[in-house]
Every structure is written in C-alpha cells, then in structure tokens.
Amino acid sequence: MPLHNSASFLVKRSVVTLTLTLCLFSAQAIADDTLTAQNNAASNPQQSAWEDREPEAATGIYEKQAATATQYMVSAANPHASNAGLKILEQGGSAIDAAIAVQAMLTLVEPQSSGIGGGAFILYWDNTEKRLYTYDGREVAPANTEPDVFFKNGKVMSWRESVVGGKSVGVPGVLKALDKAHKKHGSLAWDSLFNATIKLANSGFEVSPRLAGLLVRDLHPALNEFEAAQEYFKPNGEWLKEGELKQNPALAVSLANIAKQGVDYFYSGPLAEQIAEAVRLAPTNPGKMSTRDLRNYQAIERLPMCGDYRGYQVCGMAPPSSGGVSVYQILNGLEQFDVSKWSPQGSELVHTFSQSSSLAFADRSIYLADLDFMGLSAKPLVEASYLATRSALISVDKPYVKGTPGQPYPNYAFAQDDAYELNSTSHIAIVDKDGNAVSMTTSIEFMFGSGVMVGGFLLNNQLTDFALSPEKDGKQVLNRVQPEKRPRSSMSPTMIFDENGELYLVVGSPGGSRIINYVAQAIINVVDFGMNIQDAISAPRFTNRNDYTALEKGTDITSLESELTALGHDVRIIDLNSGIHGIQIEDGKLIGGADPRREGLAVGR
Fold first, then answer.
1. Cis peptide leading into residue 147 (ω within 30°)
2. Which of 275, 281, 458, 479 might form a disulfide with 417, Cβ 3.0–4.6 angstroms?
3. Which of 21, 59, 425, 464 is labelled catalytic?
4. Is position 425 annotated as part of the catalytic site?
5. The domain 8-301+418-604 is classified under which CATH number: 3.60.20.40, 3.60.130.10, 3.40.350.10, 3.40.980.10?
6. pLDDT per position as a tens digit, 391-432
7. What pLDDT score was predicted for residue 29?
C-alpha cells in the first residue's frame, strides 16, 4: 500500500477506518575528546567538517531497562520531565496535557535541547475517535528575512558564524502548537500544567551530568559571549557543575504569566517585545524579528503521512518535516527483503539499509521543504510506481554506491541545498489512561540554540535549517530562505498501528539529520526482529545520509567495518548520539523505552 497524505485510510484486514487529519564522563575524557577532535581537524578537514556538524556531543551511557505499566506512561529526556508528565496523567490529564507539562520542564532542566523558544511537530492519537491529528509548530522566518541572510562579503557564512545570534532565530512555534492541540484534546485547565516547573525553577534543580558535560566542553561558538546566557550558564566565570543547585526565577515568571494569560503573553504581550528586542539587538548577527512576526505566527494542523510496512501502518509528519516521507522511503526500500532472517547487526541489513537511506536522503536534499511555498504535494515522492523504481536500485550483493535523486517532479528542476541541520532536539512519547497518545519531537536546533536568552529560556537558531545558498548553478533551492517560510526539518515523530487499527508504537528521536535513520532502525528492530521497544532503542546504531556509513563506536557492530568496506562503503566509527524515546502497546500492556545514550526515563502506572 503506498503512503497516503489524505484524510483517511483503511487498515488492512480491519473494519476500522482511521480518519486522519492530514553517563558518565570525566574531565580527562572530555580533554581527550577535544584533543582528538583537534587532531582529526588537522589531518582530515573533510571528516572534521562532518564531525563538527553533530548536534550534541556524547556524554556517556546510562543503563536502562524497559518500563511496564497498564494505565499510562511517559518517556522523556529527563527524569524531572517524565515525572512532571506522569503527575498530570495521575490527575486525570490527557496525553496533550502531559506533553505541555513535559515541555515546560524540559525548558528548565534540558535547555540545551529544546524549550519554549523553539519549535515542534506533534502527533496526537485520539483513541475514542480512532483519529490521528498532527500539529506543525515549526518556526518561521521573520517577514523581513532576506534571501542572502547567511551571506557575508558575498560568500556563505561558515556554520560557526551563522548559528549564533539574532539572524538565525525563527519565530518560535512550540507553544502555539501545544495550545492548538490543548484546545481540542486537553482535559485539565491550561494554567494547571506549568506548576511543577514553576516550583522547581524557583527552588532550584540539580544540574544533570549531560548538561554539565556539554557546558564544560564549550562547543557552542558564542554561548559565553551573550550576557544573559553567560550569567545563567557561567556564573562567577565557571560553567555550571554536575549536581549544582540551579534556580531560574526568570523562567518561573515567564511560565507563570503564560499559565495565567495563555500563549498571548508569549506572542503578543510583554514577552513578545522582549523576544523581538533580544533578536534585533543581539551583539552578534542581529536579526529582523518584530513583534508583528510573533503576533502573526500560526500553528498548522496538517494531514499525516501514513503507509503500510509489513501490514502495519506507519504514520508521521508531512513536510516541512522530512520524517514522514524519508522514514517511509527507507522502510519501503527494505520491504522487498525478508529482513527478519538477517541479524539486526549484520552486514546484510546495514548494507541494504544504507542503500535505501542513501536514496531517501538524495531525494530529501532536493525535494523536501516547506512545500506550501511552491504549491507542491509530497505525494509524488511516495507514489507506489515511483517507490518501485527506487527500490529496484537496492541489492544485497551489489556494491554500495551513493544515491542519486529521482525525478518525482519531472516539470521542475531544483538544486541540492546546504543546510546545516544541527538539531539539538528532544523527543516525548506519552500514552494516557484512555489510550490517547502523543509523539512529539521538539527542538531549538543547535546545542543551546542561537545562544540568545530571554525570559529564562534560549531562542532557537532554526533558520540555519534553510539552505544557506538560495540557488546553485542557476537552479533555485527548494529549501531556500523566504519570508514567513518554515525550514525543512529532520524531526520524525512517528506512530505505528497494527492490522486492527490499534495503536502499537509511539517513537521518535533527536539527533540532527540522523533522526531519520534512528527512527527507521528502531521500527525495524521492533517490527522485523520482534524486539521490545527498550531493546530496539538500546541496540547498536548505524546510519548513512548518502555520505558515509557510520557505525556506533564502542559497540559490537564495529566488527563489520572490513566487510562493509569491501562492499564499497566509506565506513567511519563514531559516537551516534541518538535519544530515542518510545512506548509499545502489546497485550494490553505499555512497554516504555528510553535511550541509554542520554539521561531520559520511561515511567508509568
């Protein structure tokens, strides 16, 4: 069954019609990593360029076991956030109520990854209606944004220059999306959903190992140069330390006003004025955001992208997210093989997965963007006939070659883009007592975003997810910067439904453009290899973005290096810092998983 971007679809062998609305580290280890990175940069500039584009450095492994529950569950990137969501569910809140509480808490305790200064894509499953809703809370470019915003002296700025300061900040969308979803699916009052975070922001939270580790590495080009961020993250001239009690009274005030006055306080009230001013007056790369940009922002309810994989329906976001298309393209390319007979860490899977992913990323680099601006549909990318021509290029026996774009839009010619896509991101998976669910990926883009801080939270630098060059070789780049346009995203919140139309899996991940590979691999581990969600998340990672085949450092999968090299792969053994969170529903039981590569937690009752 081809992927659908339509109002409804019929699940195979089902009478149910689903109506869809489209950890450990040390100072010495850190020093060693820094020295290694410097040496690599000197010896291999091309590899260093890719390594530098990783969104967040690895900070160790935390042992995780699958969580089980019978009523409700939350899996999120920090125990404070998971427990804040759990408390809302205990009070009878819906999955979207809990998501709001989780996002508020992540803004406080995981500021490097997401927050109310960023954007999100939200899938919401209404178990009573048997209907999937999706909400686009992606940032937009300010109305006065110019095509050459990331040019300096006639040349494209380096990523270190472009990601910081005001011009990289898009109009934040996560609160508008949450508000829109809450109005339709919320059970508890809006003003009751921020209490836990407000209380902790005032009393103080213990700085986590991951936050402290990322700060001490000093990887953000300008975090310690912006006054507000420097005062918060580097008080008295030293970075925050693990275990240190940190208060954030400014965030407490912001959230208290958002709770009482609603999102209007953020988008048209005093906070909007502070945000716009901070962007325009940023000492580095001042931007052009206005209060009108904030006031005019709208979250969009879109049609989901859904299609069949081995009898399951796999559903994700439509563009400007590329997850709904690209994850499905990868899965579709593998469906011709009996993957279950292979090893989940064997060369057959890595070889064919890499080919399928290369083809998906080749298409993505040209055709996926905010298609609203071109009046285009994503449908040609997922038509059965088109996918058949792409799948025919994948072979177990033939050597690996980089993918080339197909021609799903024969009347158009676009150029490949050069977006950086340094997503510092977080994923939230929730199932409530009524079986409603949320799969929400939320981001401020690069680690610590733009570095611009206002109201106790960081602002995103999502505009660097646009192509920095608006055209190449006389061809326009589809993902070019345009006023009030949404940059393409790799965020891939996903839900999977069984043959009876019942929710089976809620999953997603952070990880920059590797998100697409992380999510696809987790789905394969569950569907093809029968793993529970925790085992699927913990399994060694491998990725290919039509560049090189990455094998996760420190895992058994690195033994494939010589075999894959012989098959034509450019193999690199590196940290693959996913952050997958997921919930599996099986035999009336909820099984929760959290990525051992980060400090998240799955909890339930």
1. no
2. 479
3. 425
4. yes
5. 3.60.20.40
6. 999 999 999 999 999 999 987 778 777 666 655 799 999 999
7. 32
